[in-house]
Amino acid sequence: MVEVEAQADLLFKDVAGYLKADDVSRLQSAYHFSEAAHHGQFRKSGEPYISHPLAVAKILAQWHLDPQALTAALLHDVMEDTAVTKDEIATTFGRPVADLVDGVSKIDAIEFQTKEDFQAENFRKMLLAMARDVRVILIKLADRLHNMRTMQAMDAERRRRIARETLDIYAPIANRLGLNAIYQELQDLSFRYLHPTRHRVLAKALKTSRGNRREVVGKVLDAIVARLKEAGVEATVTGREKHLYSIYNKMLEKQLSFAQVQDIYGFRVIVRDVNACYIALGLLHGLYKPIPGKFKDYIAIPKANGYQSLHSTLFGPFGMPLEMQIRTHEMHKIAEAGVASHWLYKSTDSELTELHRKTHQWLQSLLELQSTSGNAVEFLEHLKVDLFPDEVYVFTPKGRIMALPRGATAVDFAYFVHTDIGNRAIAVKINDELMPLRTELRNGDRVEIITAVQARPNPAWLNFVTTARARSQIRHFLKTMQLTESVQLGERLLTQALATLKTSPSDIDETGWDKLLRDCGLKTRRDLHADIGLGKRLAAVIAARLLQLAGDGAATPRIAGTIMIRGTEGMAAQLARCCNPIPGDAVIGLVSKGQGIVIHTQDCAVIRRNRHESDRWVDVQWDDKTRRAFGVNIRLSVANERGVLAQVAGAIADAGSNIDNVNVDQADSSAYSTINFTIQVSNRFHLAQVMRRLRRIPEVVRIARVKGTQRERE
Ligand code: MN
Fold it and tell me: Are 452 and 542 members of one domain?
C-alpha cells in the first residue's frame, strides 16, 4: 500500500505542474473513490488493482490531458470490475466523466476475433466510431499500453492473444492519430510477446551493436553540430536508434540481415522554423553526399496523420548510410504525440467545447497540410468518419463487420446483406434476442436475420428504413408484385364481363382493342388489365365499350352509368354473402380489390362502413330479365309443437321455393324455438309470397328476413 501511495503522490505532483489546485484535489477524491471501489482486488502480478488506473492516469498526464480525462482514467475500470454504476459516477464526478468511463467500458466489452486485414480495418473504425470523443481512445490506448507493459504475470497464450490484438488494432489507431511514441512502444511490446525468441535475439544483437556504433555516431554528431553552428543555425541534434519492431519488419520485408539493417545510422535535427529546415538540409548535403532518390519532403507533402519532416539519406564516413530527419519543434511535437499534442502544448482548458475546438483544429491543420497532396478532401472525409462518426458497425452471425449509416434498422441491414434476405425477412435476433425488425442498430450489435421462403416485404417497412438501398428494393418488389397480381385479376374480370355479354376477348378484333386503348389513353392491354385489376376501371363498362367499338351495338343501351345485374355475372359482379341481395332489393356495387364488383343491399352494414370511400361505389340495378333463383335467409320463431317443422317446410315448397339449408337453434324456452332457413327465391316479390304463406301457420309467431348476421364480407 505504501508503494501505491507513493505512486499516487507522483501522479499528483505531475498534474500539479499544469492543473489548478482545486482540479488536483478533485482528482485526489477520484483516486480515493476508485481505490475504495477496487479495494481487495489485485492484479495478476499481486499488486493492488488501483496501481493500474494510477499508471494509466500518469501516462495521460504526460500529454497534459484535462481533468475530466484524468478522472475518467482513474475510474476507467470501476464500471466493469466493481459495483459502481454510470449514474453514480455521473452524480459524483459529472456527466462528461461518466460518458468517458462508459465509452472505455464499451470498447472493453468487444473482442476482436477474425484476422483478415479488411476486418481489422473495420474494427479499428468501429472502435473510433464508438469512442465519439477522442479522449476515450486516448484513455483506452494508455490502458492498453500499461497492460502491455505489465503482462509478464499472464500465461503465454493470453499474452499472445492480447499482443496480436494490439498489433492489429490498437497500434494502427495510435499511428493514425499520430501518437508515434505509443505506436512504437505498442509494436515493440507486441513483437516481444508474439515472437519471444526473435525478440530476445534481436534485442541482444542491438545491445552489442550499440557499443560498436557509439564511436561512429559520436563522430558524425560532432561534425553536424559544428557545421550548423558555423552557419549560425540554432539546432538540437540527436542520434536516433530504430526500435526493434521496425528493424524486424525491415529484415522481413526487404530480406536484409540484421547487420545490413543496423548499418544504417539515424540522426534527427530539430530547428526553429521551416526555413531553417531547408538551410540545415543544404548544409548537411554539403557535409556528406546525398544518396540519389532518397530525399523526401514531408514538409511540403505531409503524411496522412500530419507527420512533417525532411528525410534524406547521406553517405557517411566509410560509406555508411546516414538517415537524416530535419524538422521544427512544432513538427516534432506532432510527430511524437499527434492529436494529443494539442493538450500537451496548448492551454489547459477542460471544457468539452474547447475539446471539440481542439480536435477540429487538429483536423483543420491536417487538412491544410494535406491540401498540397491532392486528395485532401478524401482524406478529411476518412478522418471525419473516424472521429465524428455517422456510421454504425455491426456484426453478421459469422463475425463479419458491416458498416451502415447511423439510424439504420434491422431491415436496412437485411437488404445490405442481400436483396433476397431483405425480401424474405420475418424477424431479427439482435445479440441473441428476438427484436422487432424496425429496431435501430447500435455499434457492436450482432445481427441475425430470420427469413422464410414464402415471406414478402411489408409496405410498413417503408415507414422506418433509412437506407436508400432498402427503400428502393422494397418499393421495387411491392410494385412488381402488385402489378403482376393486378394484371392477372384484371384480365380475369374482363374475360368474365365479356362472357356475360356472350363474347370473349379473342372475339374482339384488333381495331376494337386499338380504339379502346386510345380512348382510355393506354398503351397496352396489360395496362388495361392492370387498371381493371386495381379497380380504376370497371370490367363491365370496358366489356360493353369493347363490344360497341367492335361494331356490336346490341350491348350498348344497357350501359349508361348504371350497371345492370342479372346475378349471373360470376366473379365480375358477385352478390355479397353478408346481405344476400335479391332482385327487387335496393342495391349498390362496391368495387373491391381482387373481387370485382360486389353487390350489397343499400342498408348493408358493409356499405355503411365504407360510405366515405365513395369512389369505390358503383350504381347498379337489377336487370328485369333475371331468371335464376337467389339464396336468402329467413328466421322463424315457432311454438314447440310436434310436426311444426314439416308444416313450415311444406308451406315453403307450396310457395314455389326450395330450401337450401335449415338449422334449429336450441330452444329459447320450453315453449318456442328459432329456425333459420336459407331458401331460394327469384326476387323480392317471390320472397314476400313465401313469407305470407308462412304467417298463415298458427305456430309461427314471428318471421323475418335476415341480413348481415352471417360473417360480413365486402
Ligand atoms: Mn484497464
Answer: no
Catalytic one of 14, 47, 81, 102? 81
Exposed/middle/buried for 589, CB within 10 Å: 0-12, 13-18, 19+?
A: buried
194: CA distance to ligand 1 center in Å?
21
pTM reported for the whole predicted model: 0.54
Residue 451 inside a domain? The answer is yes
Q: How far is the CA of 38 from the centre of ligand 1 (A)?
A: 12
Query: Do residue 99 and residue 184 come from a single domain?
Result: yes
How many Å apart are CA 448 and CA 433, to the nearest integer? Answer: 10
The pLDDT value recorded for residue 708 is: 61
Q: Do residues 442 and 393 lie in contact, with contact meaning Cβ atoms separated by under 8 Å?
A: no
Rounded to the nearest angstrom, the distance between the alpha carbon of 54 and the centre of ligand 1 is 10
Ligand 1 centroid to 667 CA: how many Å? 81
Residues 544/556, Cβ–Cβ less than 8 Å: yes
Is the per-residue pLDDT at 669 higher than 80?
no
Does 22 lie in the same domain as 149?
A: yes
Q: Where are the extended beta strands (E) located within 190-264?
A: 235-240
**Spacing, Cα 181 to ligand 1 middle (Å):** 20
CA–CA separation, 670 and 212 (whole Å) = 122
Say whether both 415 and 552 belong to one domain: no
Q: What is the pLDDT of residues 339-395, one digit of tens each?
A: 666 665 444 444 434 444 555 455 555 444 444 444 334 443 444 334 445 677 788
Position 560 scores a pLDDT of 36
Determine how β-strand 433-435 pairs with β-strand 425-430: antiparallel
Tens digits of residue pLDDT in 396-453? 887 677 778 888 999 999 999 999 999 999 999 998 889 899 999 987 788 999 998 8
What amino acid is encoded at 452 in this protein? A
Q: Is 80 a known active-site residue?
A: yes
Q: Can 81 be counted among the known catalytic residues? A: yes
Task: Give the CA distances from residue 625 to residues 123, 158, 565, 628, in Å, rounded to whole numbers and listed in that order.
Answer: 79, 93, 10, 9
Write the CATH number for 211: 3.30.460.10
Model confidence pLDDT, tens digit, residues 531-581? 887 777 888 888 888 887 776 544 433 333 456 776 656 556 778 888 888
**What's the gap in Å between 50 CA and the centre of ligand 1?**
10
| Alpha carbons 366 and 370: distance in angstroms, whole number | 6
Residues 206, 174 within the same domain: no
| Contact (CB, 8 A) for 19 and 67 | yes
- Mark which of 165, 194, 223 sits at the end of a domain: 194
Same domain, 656 and 530: no
User: 74-132 pLDDT, tens per residue?
Assistant: 999 999 888 899 999 999 999 989 988 988 887 777 666 655 555 666 666 666 655 56
Identify whether the C-beta of residue 263 lies closer than 8 Å to the C-beta of residue 320.
Answer: yes
Name which of 638, 682, 684 is nearest 662 in CA terms: 638
Give me the count of residues in the chain: 714
- CB crowding 513-541: b at 16 or more within 10 Å, else e: bebbeeeeebeebebbbbbbbbbebbbbe
- Cβ atoms of 606 and 576 within 8 Å: the answer is yes
**In the prediction, which pLDDT does 226 show?**
94
Of 80, 273, 381, 603, catalytic: 80
In a domain, 360, yes or no: no
Same domain, 15 and 51: yes
Q: Strand (E) positions, 361-459?
A: 391-395, 401-405, 425-430, 433-435, 447-451
Which one of 176, 194, 212 terminates a domain? 194
CA dihedral sign of residues 539, 580, 652, 663: positive
**Ligand 1 geometric centre to CA of 77 (Å):** 5
Collapsed DSSP state (helix, strand, coil) of residue 40 = coil
Q: Does residue 172 share a domain with residue 80?
A: yes
Asked if the structure places residue 503 within a domain, the reply is: yes
